[in-house]
Amino acid sequence: MAFGTPSVVTQLDASGVSDLAQFILPDHSAIYFVSSRNGTNSIYRSARTNGVFQVPVLVDGTNLNTGGVDYPVPLPDELTLYSSNGFGNDVLVATRTDTNARFGAGAPLDGVNSAANEWPLFLSSDQCSLYLASARPGGLGGMDIWVARRGD
What pLDDT shows up at residue 62? Predict the structure, then answer.
């Protein structure tokens, strides 16, 4: 079956700014994305209620929202957030105690980062496979898609 013509998700759109790097929670209850609506690229979250996205709110946390494209990848419970450090140098992981708290400082993800640029893309439902884009040596050149598996 073919897709129809795309249309703007008006509840998320902020005129004249970039909105990108989106990640929808597996249960479709919210979307995380990067937007320049406050003058610099920052991570936002919009809850989805009765199939409609709500007004996006800034995701607060220490050293999040670096001004680059942070590529947010939250866990389904929204207590852990993988992101880049804004300019793709490292994949970071930040945690919080509950969904009303700020995220703590993002720390480089051990075993995943290299001297090249990396961005997290997707975490498998069992949380054992993190897919990332990286320009590290050993790929086919440029940015390649890599996977880091727990226990490897």
Answer: 67
Q: Name the one residue in this structure whose structure tokens are 């680059």.
A: 68
- How far, in Å, CA of 61 to CA of 77, rounded? 16
3-state secondary structure of 113: coil
Q: What is the pLDDT of residues 13-27, one digit of tens each?
A: 887 888 888 899 999
Is 2.120.10.30 the CATH number for 20-149?
Answer: yes
Distances 98 to 12, 59, 74 between C-alpha atoms, Å = 24, 13, 13
- Cα–Cα distance measured from residue 97 to residue 16, given in angstroms and rounded to the nearest whole number: 35
CA distance 50 to 78: 20
Chain centroid to CA 52 = 21
Domain ranges of the chain: 20-149
Q: In one letter, which amino acid is 149?
A: R
At 52, phi and psi to the nearest 5?
A: -120, 130
Q: Given this model, what pLDDT does residue 59 score?
A: 92
